[in-house]
Amino acid sequence: MSTKPDRYVVIGNPISHSKSPDIHARFAAQTGQQLVYERMLAPLEGFAQSVREFIREGGKGANVTVPFKLEAHALATELTARAQAAGAVNTLKFGNGVILGDNTDGIGMVTDIVRTANVPMHSKKILLLGAGGAARGVILPVLDEHPAELVIANRTESKAAELAAQFSRHGSVSASSFDTLRGRFDIIINATSASLSADLPPVPTTVFGDGAFAYDMMYGKEPTVFMRFAAAHGATVRDGLGMLVEQAAEAFFVWRSVRPDTAPVYAELRAGL
Ligand code: ATR
Q: Which pTM was predicted?
Protein backbone atom coordinates (compact mmCIF):
# COMPACT_ATOMS: atom_id res chain seq x y z
CA MET A 1 0.00 0.00 0.00
CA SER A 2 1.42 3.36 -0.94
CA THR A 3 0.78 6.28 1.40
CA LYS A 4 1.28 9.92 0.55
CA PRO A 5 4.08 11.66 2.43
CA ASP A 6 3.00 13.97 5.28
CA ARG A 7 2.83 17.64 4.29
CA TYR A 8 4.35 20.63 6.08
CA VAL A 9 4.72 24.29 5.11
CA VAL A 10 6.41 27.47 6.25
CA ILE A 11 3.86 30.29 6.18
CA GLY A 12 4.83 33.96 5.93
CA ASN A 13 4.57 37.11 3.87
CA PRO A 14 6.98 37.47 2.15
CA ILE A 15 8.17 33.87 2.06
CA SER A 16 10.29 33.34 -1.07
CA HIS A 17 13.54 33.95 0.86
CA SER A 18 12.86 31.26 3.50
CA LYS A 19 15.59 28.64 3.93
CA SER A 20 13.28 26.36 5.92
CA PRO A 21 12.27 24.09 2.98
CA ASP A 22 15.96 23.39 2.22
CA ILE A 23 16.71 22.70 5.87
CA HIS A 24 13.77 20.34 6.38
CA ALA A 25 14.42 18.52 3.09
CA ARG A 26 17.94 17.78 4.34
CA PHE A 27 16.65 16.67 7.75
CA ALA A 28 14.10 14.37 6.07
CA ALA A 29 16.68 12.81 3.74
CA GLN A 30 19.11 12.31 6.62
CA THR A 31 16.57 10.63 8.93
CA GLY A 32 14.62 8.70 6.25
CA GLN A 33 11.37 10.52 7.09
CA GLN A 34 8.79 10.62 4.29
CA LEU A 35 7.55 14.20 4.13
CA VAL A 36 7.04 17.17 1.86
CA TYR A 37 7.84 20.70 3.11
CA GLU A 38 6.93 23.74 1.03
CA ARG A 39 6.66 27.53 1.20
CA MET A 40 3.18 29.05 1.63
CA LEU A 41 2.56 32.73 0.98
CA ALA A 42 -0.48 33.77 3.05
CA PRO A 43 -2.27 37.06 2.31
CA LEU A 44 -1.63 39.63 5.06
CA GLU A 45 -5.30 39.45 6.05
CA GLY A 46 -5.64 35.71 5.44
CA PHE A 47 -3.37 33.82 7.81
CA ALA A 48 -6.01 31.87 9.76
CA GLN A 49 -7.92 30.98 6.60
CA SER A 50 -4.76 29.71 4.91
CA VAL A 51 -3.94 27.52 7.91
CA ARG A 52 -7.48 26.10 8.13
CA GLU A 53 -7.46 25.29 4.43
CA PHE A 54 -4.11 23.52 4.78
CA ILE A 55 -5.50 21.49 7.70
CA ARG A 56 -8.55 20.50 5.61
CA GLU A 57 -6.19 19.31 2.87
CA GLY A 58 -4.51 17.04 5.40
CA GLY A 59 -1.49 19.20 6.35
CA LYS A 60 0.34 17.90 9.44
CA GLY A 61 2.20 21.00 10.61
CA ALA A 62 3.60 24.41 9.80
CA ASN A 63 6.36 26.80 10.65
CA VAL A 64 5.23 30.39 10.98
CA THR A 65 7.34 33.42 10.23
CA VAL A 66 7.00 37.20 9.87
CA PRO A 67 4.43 38.71 10.27
CA PHE A 68 2.19 35.92 11.57
CA LYS A 69 3.77 34.63 14.81
CA LEU A 70 1.29 36.48 17.04
CA GLU A 71 -1.68 35.37 14.94
CA ALA A 72 -0.44 31.78 15.14
CA HIS A 73 -0.35 32.14 18.93
CA ALA A 74 -3.99 33.32 18.85
CA LEU A 75 -5.07 30.56 16.46
CA ALA A 76 -3.61 27.66 18.45
CA THR A 77 -6.11 25.68 20.51
CA GLU A 78 -3.30 24.41 22.78
CA LEU A 79 0.01 26.07 23.63
CA THR A 80 3.24 24.66 25.04
CA ALA A 81 4.71 26.43 28.10
CA ARG A 82 7.50 27.93 25.98
CA ALA A 83 5.00 29.28 23.42
CA GLN A 84 2.92 30.81 26.23
CA ALA A 85 6.04 32.45 27.65
CA ALA A 86 7.17 33.70 24.24
CA GLY A 87 3.70 35.07 23.44
CA ALA A 88 4.35 33.95 19.87
CA VAL A 89 4.27 30.71 17.89
CA ASN A 90 6.70 29.59 15.19
CA THR A 91 5.62 25.92 15.02
CA LEU A 92 2.13 24.48 14.59
CA LYS A 93 1.21 20.81 14.76
CA PHE A 94 -2.18 19.54 13.59
CA GLY A 95 -4.00 16.37 14.62
CA ASN A 96 -7.19 15.09 16.29
CA GLY A 97 -8.85 18.48 15.90
CA VAL A 98 -6.08 20.19 17.89
CA ILE A 99 -3.92 23.07 16.65
CA LEU A 100 -0.88 22.84 18.91
CA GLY A 101 1.21 26.03 19.07
CA ASP A 102 4.88 25.78 20.05
CA ASN A 103 7.88 28.10 19.91
CA THR A 104 11.28 26.60 19.11
CA ASP A 105 13.20 29.87 18.55
CA GLY A 106 14.42 30.26 22.12
CA ILE A 107 15.50 26.67 22.62
CA GLY A 108 17.12 26.86 19.18
CA MET A 109 19.29 29.76 20.29
CA VAL A 110 20.15 28.17 23.63
CA THR A 111 21.12 24.89 21.94
CA ASP A 112 23.32 26.77 19.47
CA ILE A 113 25.13 28.65 22.24
CA VAL A 114 25.36 25.94 24.91
CA ARG A 115 25.85 22.81 22.81
CA THR A 116 27.26 23.88 19.47
CA ALA A 117 29.38 26.85 20.56
CA ASN A 118 30.05 25.07 23.87
CA VAL A 119 29.37 28.15 26.00
CA PRO A 120 27.48 27.13 29.18
CA MET A 121 24.95 29.61 30.57
CA HIS A 122 24.77 28.05 34.02
CA SER A 123 25.93 30.53 36.72
CA LYS A 124 26.87 33.10 34.06
CA LYS A 125 26.01 36.80 33.89
CA ILE A 126 23.94 37.29 30.76
CA LEU A 127 22.94 40.53 29.06
CA LEU A 128 20.03 40.51 26.61
CA LEU A 129 19.80 43.54 24.31
CA GLY A 130 16.26 44.33 23.15
CA ALA A 131 12.75 43.76 24.50
CA GLY A 132 10.73 43.01 21.36
CA GLY A 133 9.36 39.71 20.14
CA ALA A 134 12.78 38.17 19.46
CA ALA A 135 14.01 38.96 22.97
CA ARG A 136 10.84 37.75 24.69
CA GLY A 137 11.05 34.43 22.86
CA VAL A 138 14.40 33.48 24.37
CA ILE A 139 13.95 34.54 28.01
CA LEU A 140 12.38 31.37 29.42
CA PRO A 141 14.82 28.96 27.69
CA VAL A 142 17.74 31.13 28.91
CA LEU A 143 16.43 31.19 32.52
CA ASP A 144 15.94 27.42 32.33
CA GLU A 145 19.77 27.19 32.08
CA HIS A 146 20.02 28.84 35.55
CA PRO A 147 22.31 31.79 34.81
CA ALA A 148 23.56 33.82 37.81
CA GLU A 149 21.57 36.73 36.43
CA LEU A 150 19.86 37.97 33.29
CA VAL A 151 19.75 41.70 32.59
CA ILE A 152 17.44 42.92 29.81
CA ALA A 153 18.54 46.28 28.34
CA ASN A 154 16.34 48.19 25.93
CA ARG A 155 16.17 51.62 24.29
CA THR A 156 12.64 51.92 25.69
CA GLU A 157 13.40 50.83 29.25
CA SER A 158 9.74 50.34 30.23
CA LYS A 159 9.47 47.43 27.77
CA ALA A 160 12.47 45.74 29.40
CA ALA A 161 10.91 46.33 32.83
CA GLU A 162 7.65 44.71 31.73
CA LEU A 163 9.51 41.62 30.53
CA ALA A 164 11.62 41.41 33.69
CA ALA A 165 8.48 41.57 35.83
CA GLN A 166 6.74 38.95 33.73
CA PHE A 167 9.60 36.44 34.07
CA SER A 168 10.73 37.23 37.63
CA ARG A 169 9.35 33.98 39.06
CA HIS A 170 11.57 31.98 36.67
CA GLY A 171 14.92 33.35 37.84
CA SER A 172 17.08 36.39 38.58
CA VAL A 173 16.04 38.85 35.88
CA SER A 174 16.18 42.65 35.87
CA ALA A 175 15.82 45.55 33.44
CA SER A 176 18.04 48.46 32.45
CA SER A 177 18.36 51.23 29.90
CA PHE A 178 21.52 51.23 27.78
CA ASP A 179 23.18 54.23 29.39
CA THR A 180 22.66 53.02 32.95
CA LEU A 181 24.14 49.56 32.26
CA ARG A 182 26.80 48.69 34.81
CA GLY A 183 29.06 45.71 35.29
CA ARG A 184 30.62 43.13 33.01
CA PHE A 185 28.86 40.19 31.44
CA ASP A 186 29.94 36.72 30.30
CA ILE A 187 27.36 36.39 27.51
CA ILE A 188 25.85 39.32 25.57
CA ILE A 189 22.98 38.54 23.20
CA ASN A 190 21.77 41.04 20.60
CA ALA A 191 18.02 40.54 20.13
CA THR A 192 17.37 44.05 18.81
CA SER A 193 16.44 44.53 15.19
CA ALA A 194 19.20 47.14 14.89
CA SER A 195 21.43 44.86 12.78
CA LEU A 196 18.76 44.84 10.06
CA SER A 197 19.53 48.50 9.40
CA ALA A 198 23.26 48.10 10.15
CA ASP A 199 22.78 50.00 13.43
CA LEU A 200 24.50 49.26 16.69
CA PRO A 201 22.51 49.22 19.94
CA PRO A 202 24.16 51.89 22.14
CA VAL A 203 25.72 49.45 24.57
CA PRO A 204 28.69 50.64 26.70
CA THR A 205 32.00 48.95 25.84
CA THR A 206 32.40 48.09 29.53
CA VAL A 207 29.81 45.28 29.31
CA PHE A 208 32.30 42.88 27.70
CA GLY A 209 33.93 40.92 30.51
CA ASP A 210 37.14 38.87 30.19
CA GLY A 211 36.48 36.02 27.76
CA ALA A 212 33.02 37.37 26.94
CA PHE A 213 30.88 35.65 24.32
CA ALA A 214 28.68 37.84 22.08
CA TYR A 215 25.81 36.48 20.01
CA ASP A 216 23.77 38.23 17.32
CA MET A 217 20.45 36.61 16.40
CA MET A 218 20.88 38.01 12.88
CA TYR A 219 23.18 36.32 10.39
CA GLY A 220 24.70 37.04 7.04
CA LYS A 221 27.72 36.49 4.83
CA GLU A 222 29.61 39.16 6.78
CA PRO A 223 29.69 39.72 10.56
CA THR A 224 27.05 42.22 11.77
CA VAL A 225 28.03 45.64 13.14
CA PHE A 226 27.34 44.34 16.63
CA MET A 227 29.65 41.35 16.08
CA ARG A 228 32.43 43.61 14.82
CA PHE A 229 31.96 45.95 17.80
CA ALA A 230 32.00 43.04 20.28
CA ALA A 231 35.06 41.44 18.66
CA ALA A 232 36.89 44.78 18.78
CA HIS A 233 36.33 44.74 22.55
CA GLY A 234 37.70 41.25 23.04
CA ALA A 235 34.59 39.10 22.77
CA THR A 236 34.27 35.80 20.93
CA VAL A 237 31.41 36.28 18.48
CA ARG A 238 28.80 34.13 16.75
CA ASP A 239 25.86 34.95 14.49
CA GLY A 240 22.34 33.50 14.43
CA LEU A 241 22.66 31.00 11.57
CA GLY A 242 22.94 28.14 14.06
CA MET A 243 19.78 29.37 15.81
CA LEU A 244 17.94 29.09 12.49
CA VAL A 245 19.08 25.48 12.03
CA GLU A 246 18.45 24.48 15.66
CA GLN A 247 14.92 25.97 15.79
CA ALA A 248 14.17 23.96 12.65
CA ALA A 249 15.58 20.78 14.22
CA GLU A 250 13.41 21.28 17.30
CA ALA A 251 10.31 21.78 15.11
CA PHE A 252 11.24 18.61 13.20
CA PHE A 253 11.42 16.78 16.52
CA VAL A 254 8.02 18.17 17.59
CA TRP A 255 6.46 16.80 14.39
CA ARG A 256 8.42 13.58 13.81
CA SER A 257 9.89 12.61 17.23
CA VAL A 258 13.28 12.24 15.52
CA ARG A 259 16.30 14.50 16.09
CA PRO A 260 18.26 15.33 12.94
CA ASP A 261 22.01 15.98 12.93
CA THR A 262 22.31 19.74 12.55
CA ALA A 263 26.07 20.03 11.98
CA PRO A 264 26.20 19.08 8.27
CA VAL A 265 23.13 21.22 7.48
CA TYR A 266 24.69 24.20 9.26
CA ALA A 267 27.94 23.73 7.32
CA GLU A 268 26.13 23.61 3.99
CA LEU A 269 24.09 26.73 4.76
CA ARG A 270 27.19 28.58 5.91
CA ALA A 271 29.01 27.69 2.71
CA GLY A 272 26.03 28.88 0.66
CA LEU A 273 25.65 32.32 2.25
P1 ATR B 1 11.54 41.72 16.84
O2 ATR B 1 10.36 40.85 16.56
O3 ATR B 1 12.67 41.58 15.86
O4 ATR B 1 12.01 41.59 18.24
P5 ATR B 1 10.30 44.19 17.58
O6 ATR B 1 9.32 43.45 18.43
O7 ATR B 1 9.84 45.33 16.72
O8 ATR B 1 11.04 43.21 16.58
O9 ATR B 1 11.47 44.70 18.55
C10 ATR B 1 12.60 45.37 18.06
C11 ATR B 1 13.60 45.56 19.20
O12 ATR B 1 14.80 46.14 18.68
C13 ATR B 1 13.12 46.50 20.28
O14 ATR B 1 13.69 46.10 21.51
C15 ATR B 1 13.69 47.84 19.82
O16 ATR B 1 13.85 48.79 20.86
P17 ATR B 1 12.57 49.71 21.33
O18 ATR B 1 11.71 48.81 22.14
O19 ATR B 1 13.17 50.80 22.11
O20 ATR B 1 11.92 50.15 20.04
C21 ATR B 1 15.04 47.39 19.34
N22 ATR B 1 15.70 48.27 18.37
C23 ATR B 1 15.38 48.45 17.07
N24 ATR B 1 16.24 49.29 16.47
C25 ATR B 1 17.15 49.66 17.42
C26 ATR B 1 18.31 50.51 17.42
N27 ATR B 1 18.70 51.15 16.32
N28 ATR B 1 18.99 50.62 18.58
C29 ATR B 1 18.59 49.98 19.69
N30 ATR B 1 17.51 49.16 19.76
C31 ATR B 1 16.80 49.01 18.64
A: 0.96
